[in-house]
């Protein structure tokens, strides 16, 4: 009844939003509007603040970067038509396209067409380090020593040290290119965002709707020479309730829905993760490996804690069935984490042998732990948030069968993050989503100099051998050799059982069957420039 009342209250607002969106778009083109929902309001359309998915998706529609990633995570030219890297790996020279225009704006003093150039790129990247801006993406410039404009369409970026993952970082939305004219302060960029992307800003009513219109001067074309994008507009609503979003999607009022919520997962999918037959005529489900590893971390910075015993940590890893967990608690969405910490989608994934379900081996390890420690009643506390109570409850039940008592502590996400960062949790559920498509992004979590609260090493894992290999891998320019080093590093994490890998997540998307060309990718980026709505 609570859900029904909520839907009744929401429907009038949804109708108003839908009608008001149409008022922004020519009636004869309204069938070319792509509509989706965000559960939380977008906080900024400034790419310097594109920190989470809701902002990243919106920003991606409006801006371009020097390079981008295709669906196979291969680097592709975007604003840069080509690039060269020096032999020492420190200098990157980019040749820019000379046919890319920014969206129209009064900041260009009446010039309706303003080409993107090297000065804009230098301004945009240096802007990230402006302390008054306080961009959460300032770290992407950590490796940069200087940026030099060679000529109007040639740019050189010089790094402090060789860093092979740098090109991947430049594909991030933080590195979107803005016009240099913004530094004049003539406009409030927060209210008048300007990019060069396939869609341009039209209207934003916080917590109600956001509308983008087609950029008629966009530079990309399809294989037949037709200009992109195909859509006339993008309309985003902000219904906070996921059940309401689901109902709007089922009724055809939304074109797309991302992710799987517990409130409707059993309605849509069977235990194998396939769409139920009653929805197959109207809806399509698409899945792809996601660069996200869900795990339980052990805090290894306090020798007094039981989890500092390696045998106990390995027993826990062997003591529950990941395949069963994925099938029955996640309706088959996700891959059991029986390899290393690096997820599927990155090189070396398949070659790492991790932990599978071996209860007898787990019991043997527990007996050895009791003999060496003298502790006859092994016990740990795992801290999680409310969204993962079912997974932790499953692990709790399984581990009790092999003689480990598990206590569950449920905290709000913000409190959990704070305590995890301060080293106040014995064991904690966490996830790591790649900022850029390089395994270094994952392995940095176990580098001793990255210990929290100053870095992402929440486990406080420390190994001189690991550190030496990690720093060496950062300077290795040969990709195949670097991947071999990454595999060795990942194997060390498995060998030491520093964490409990739970599952490698999958991108799950539902779309109406009249939506074509949406695609799916391991970074879960929403790319709408090739989408057609029939």
Q: What spatial form do the alpha-carbon principal axes imply?
A: globular
Which percent range fits the helix content?
25-40%
Under CATH, the topology of the largest domain can be stated as: Dipeptide-binding Protein, domain 3
Give the total of beta strands.
19
CATH superfamily of the largest domain: Dipeptide-binding Protein, Domain 3
Assign the CATH class of the largest domain.
Alpha Beta
Cα separation of the termini: 36 Å
Derived from helix and strand composition plus strand pairing, the structural class reads alpha+beta
Mean pLDDT metric: 90
User: Main sheet, how many strands, which sense, barrel?
Assistant: 7 strands, mixed
Q: Number of folding domains?
A: 3
Low-confidence parts lasting 5 or more residues at pLDDT below 50? 1-22
Instruction: Count up the helices.
Output: 14
Radius of gyration: 25 Å
Q: How large a portion of the residues is in β-strands, by DSSP E?
A: 15-25%
List the helices and strands and how they pair.
Blueprint (H helix, E strand, L loop, with lengths): L1 H22 L9 E5 L15 H10 L4 E3 L5 E3 L2 E6 L5 E6 L21 H10 L16 E8 L2 E6 L6 H5 L28 E7 L3 E6 L18 E5 L4 H9 L5 E3 L6 H4 L14 E16 L11 H9 L3 H8 L5 E2 L22 H15 L5 E6 L4 H12 L4 E6 L2 H9 L5 E7 L6 H4 L20 H12 L3 H18 L2 E14 L2 E2 L15 E2 L1
Parallel strand pairs: 1-10, 14-15, 14-16
Antiparallel strand pairs: 2-3, 4-5, 5-7, 6-7, 8-9, 9-10, 11-17, 12-16, 12-17, 13-17, 18-19
Helix pairs in contact: 7-9, 13-14
């Amino acid at each position: 009844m609570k859900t029904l009342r909520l839907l009744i209250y929401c429907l009038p607002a949804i109708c108003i939003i839908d009608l008001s969106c149409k008022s922004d778009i020519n009636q004869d083109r309204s069938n070319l509007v792509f509509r989706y929902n965000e559960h939380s309001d977008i906080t900024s359309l400034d790419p310097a603040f594109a920190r989470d998915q809701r902002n990243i998706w919106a920003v991606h529609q409006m801006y371009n970067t020097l390079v981008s990633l295709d669906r196979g995570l291969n680097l592709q030219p975007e604003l840069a038509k080509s690039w060269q890297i020096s032999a020492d790996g420190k200098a990157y020279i980019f040749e820019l396209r000379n046919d890319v225009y920014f969206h129209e704006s009064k900041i260009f003093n009446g010039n309706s067409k303003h080409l993107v150039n090297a000065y804009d790129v230098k301004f945009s990247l240096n802007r990230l380090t402006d302390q008054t801006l306080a961009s959460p993406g300032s770290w992407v410039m950590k490796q940069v020593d200087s940026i030099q404009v060679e000529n109007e369409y040639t740019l050189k970026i010089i790094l402090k040290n060789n860093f092979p993952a740098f090109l991947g970082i430049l594909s991030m939305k933080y590195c979107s290119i803005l016009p240099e004219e913004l530094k004049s302060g003539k406009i409030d960029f927060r209210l008048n965002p300007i990019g060069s992307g396939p869609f341009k800003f039209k209207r934003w009513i916080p917590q109600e709707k956001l509308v983008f219109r087609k950029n008629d001067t966009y530079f990309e074309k399809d294989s037949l020479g037709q200009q992109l994008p195909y859509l006339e507009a993008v309309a985003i609503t902000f219904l906070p309730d996921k059940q309401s979003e689901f109902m709007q999607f089922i009724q055809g009022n939304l074109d797309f829905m991302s992710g799987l919520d517990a409130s409707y997962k059993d309605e849509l999918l069977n235990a194998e993760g396939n769409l139920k037959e009653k929805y197959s005529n109207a809806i399509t489900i698409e899945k792809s490996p996601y660069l996200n590893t869900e795990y339980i971390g052990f805090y290894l910075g306090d020798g007094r804690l039981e989890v500092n015993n390696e045998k106990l940590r390995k027993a826990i890893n062997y003591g529950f069935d990941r395949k069963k967990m994925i099938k029955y608690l996640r309706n088959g969405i996700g891959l059991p984490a029986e390899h290393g910490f690096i997820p599927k989608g990155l090189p070396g994934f398949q070659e790492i042998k991790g932990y599978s379900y071996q209860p007898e081996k787990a019991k043997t390890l527990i007996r050895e732990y009791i003999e060496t420690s003298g502790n006859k009643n092994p016990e740990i506390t795992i801290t999680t948030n409310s969204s993962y109570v079912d997974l932790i409850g499953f692990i709790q039940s399984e581990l009790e069968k092999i003689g480990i008592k598990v206590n569950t502590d449920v905290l709000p996400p913000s409190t959990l993050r704070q305590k995890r960062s301060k080293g106040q949790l014995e064991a904690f559920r966490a996830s790591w989503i790649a900022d850029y498509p390089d395994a270094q992004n994952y392995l940095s979590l176990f580098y001793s100099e990255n210990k929290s609260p100053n870095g992402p090493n929440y486990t406080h894992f420390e190994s001189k051998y690991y550190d030496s290999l990690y720093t060496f891998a950062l300077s290795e320019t040969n990709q195949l050799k670097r991947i071999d080093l990454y595999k060795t590093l990942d194997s060390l994490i498995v060998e030491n059982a520093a964490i409990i890998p739970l599952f490698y997540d999958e991108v799950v998307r539902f779309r109406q069957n009249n939506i074509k060309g949406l695609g799916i990718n391991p970074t879960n980026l929403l790319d709408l420039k090739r989408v057609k709505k029939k």
